[in-house]
Amino acid sequence: MAINKVRMVRCDDCKHGKYMQWMKNPIICECNWTGERYVAEAKRLCARYEEFVGIEKPEVVHFDHY
């Protein structure tokens, strides 16, 4: 996808994310571009989205306490 083309996406498919989950809460994506955190399954507008291409999905780091 070209930069500056804003569209509705889900962060859980983006290669620019670091994924984490606390207990049984939703998966959170920390964007490598902005440093902001988003609910990975929620749709949002993003111009830097690039779909993760690979055999496996990115790893989700799990935490058992805050």
Q: Which tags fit this structure?
A:
four-stranded mixed beta sheet, 6 strands, 66 residues, 0% helix
How would you explain this protein's 3D organization?
The chain is mainly β and 66 residues long. Helices cover 0% and strands 38% of the residues. It contains no helices and 6 strands. It has strands at 7-10, 17-22, 28-31, 37-39, 43-46, 60-63. A 4-stranded mixed sheet has the order 4-3-2-6, with no helix packed on it. A two-stranded antiparallel sheet has the order 1-5. The model has no long low-confidence stretch (mean pLDDT 88).
Quick summary of this structure?
With 66 residues, the chain is mainly beta.
List the helices and strands and how they pair.
Blueprint: E1 7-10, E2 17-22, E3 28-31, E4 37-39, E5 43-46, E6 60-63
Parallel strand pairs: 2-6
Antiparallel strand pairs: 1-5, 2-3, 3-4
Strand order of the largest sheet: 4-3-2-6
What's the helix count?
Answer: 0
Coarse shape? globular
Count of extended strands: 6
